[in-house]
Amino acid sequence: MSHPLDPLVRLMQTLQERAELRPAGSYTTKLMEGGATKIGSKIREEADELIEAAQEFSGNGDEGREHFVYEAGDLIYHTLVMLAYRGVDLSEVASELARREGTSGLVEKASRDDKKDEPKQ
């Protein structure tokens, strides 16, 4: 039985293979050869496009929803490319989110801010 998130797992596997093999003619390879700077600029671009689509969403019915979903897919894809580039698996991110589950976002952020103030050893 398939799970709705199976395509993300398969995509992550493909991106990990591309990070290792760097096949010629692959858009993913081109991004990875540009490094974190190139991938990061695409993430910024796609995040901006997702925000624009979210702002247009409510007034455009199904078309607005489809555009928003499309842009979310682009942002997720480019984020997964960065994960693969850095050798981080999607399951690691899922584990981090599971660790935070049930913790208020404000409490979690405050704990990170407190750690920044601690002296490094």
Key words describing this protein structure:
single chain, 121 residues, mainly alpha, Helix Hairpins, 6 helices, globular
Provide structural commentary.
By secondary structure, this protein is an all-alpha fold. The protein has one domain (6-117): Helix Hairpins. Helix content is 79%, strand content 0%. It contains 6 helices and no strands. Helix 3 packs antiparallel against helix 4 (61-85). The relative contact order is 0.11.
Taken in chain order, the helices and strands follow as HHHHHH
Q: Sheet bearing the most strands, described?
A: none
As for the number of domains, it is 1
CATH homologous superfamily, by name?
MazG-like
- Number of E-type strands: 0
Number of helices: 6
Using only C-alpha atoms, the radius of gyration works out to 17 Å
Structural class: mainly alpha
CA(first)-CA(last) distance = 49 Å
As a percent range, the share of helical residues equals over 70%
Could you name the ranges where pLDDT drops below 50 across 5 or more consecutive residues?
none
Pfam families: PRA-PH (PF01503)
Pathway: Amino-acid biosynthesis; L-histidine biosynthesis; L-histidine from 5-phospho-alpha-D-ribose 1-diphosphate: step 2/9
Main location: cytoplasm
Protein name: Phosphoribosyl-ATP pyrophosphatase
